[in-house]
Structures are given as structure tokens and as C-alpha cells.
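1st attempt posting a full record on here, be nice pls
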Amino acid sequence: MKTQKIVKPGQPGTKKWMEKYGENLICIRYKIDTSRNCRIKTAEIILDKKPITVRSRRIPYNKLVSIKIQFNNIYLRKLIIAAGGKWNISKKIWLLPYGKVMELGLEKNMLDNLEL
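the predicted structure (as C-alpha cells):
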């Protein structure tokens, strides 16, 4: 099917549909169905409106994040290495995917706003 014409509320050809659907009418579409050799009229309407809640900043699990641990904490260092962490020698931080940080419980060791 190919859309031939889209008519917005208030334009000619929508009066009857505006009376029926009111403010919920978004548009009327005229489509051509070449397989059936006919014209189809469809109405796009709003069925439900709900306010959305904005989630807090969500970090993808595969995104590398910066971790800072004490130099002498060998146990955490070995955990990070085993989880696939990489040491950034110039910035003196560990880089680890966020999902692994969550698994290890190292969220408190994450650094904010650090360019990688």
C-alpha cells in the first residue's frame, strides 16, 4: 500500500472525523491498495495519554568506566584483572565495563566525568 495523501485536523476532509474523535485525531491518511484496486481511508487517533517518568542516567553495561582503587589493594586489583579490566598507566585508573563493575560491587569506586 502506498500513502497518497495525509490530511491534518482542521484541513478540508476532516470535519466529520474531528466531530467523532475530537482532540484525539492526529491525521487522516488516504492509501492506495493496488493489489485490491481500492482506496483506503485510515484515521490515526490517540487512545491513551500517560505522563512519563524520566529515568536517572542509565549506563550501558558494556561501556568502559573508570575505577580508582588504592594502590596497595592487591585483592581488588586481581579481581579487576580477572574481570577483564585494563590499567591506564597515564591516568592511573582501571578501565572496566560497567556490567562488571556492578557484579563486583565497585560502584563507589567509579570516577565521574573522566574522558577516556
